[in-house]
Design a protein that fits this description.
globular; 9 strands; about 100 residues; mainly beta; nine-stranded antiparallel beta sheet
């Protein structure tokens, strides 16, 4: 179960950004792809495949059907880095941070 204020990690694809301290990230959701730039400190590449990883986000709202999160970074397709996921997608994909 997710709760407001909880830190989570969202799976993403990673490419180099315009600067050495950032990544271009893409997140595949049920509703399409979210793309933008994120600070390298907010992205954790996987050890097996550095083109895939997890980006930090904070849960800002939980409703009956949706989990709304603020993803750290600057995204082209969502305002303020805020988007929502269905509970099903969130349960299958989000990783709760300690």
């Amino acid at each position: 179960m997710f709760s407001v204020g909880q830190t989570v990690r969202v799976p993403c694809e990673i490419q180099g950004g315009a600067f050495s301290n950032e990544y271009l990230v893409s997140i595949q959701t049920d509703e399409g792809i979210l793309s933008g730039f994120a600070d390298a400190n907010d992205v954790r590449p996987t050890s097996k495949n550095p083109s895939k990883g997890m980006i930090r986000a904070t849960v800002v709202e939980v409703s009956t059907n949706l989990v709304k999160v603020r993803i750290y970074g600057s995204f082209f397709t969502i305002a303020g880095g805020t988007t929502h996921f269905s509970h099903d997608w969130a349960n299958r994909n989000l990783e709760v941070s300690a």
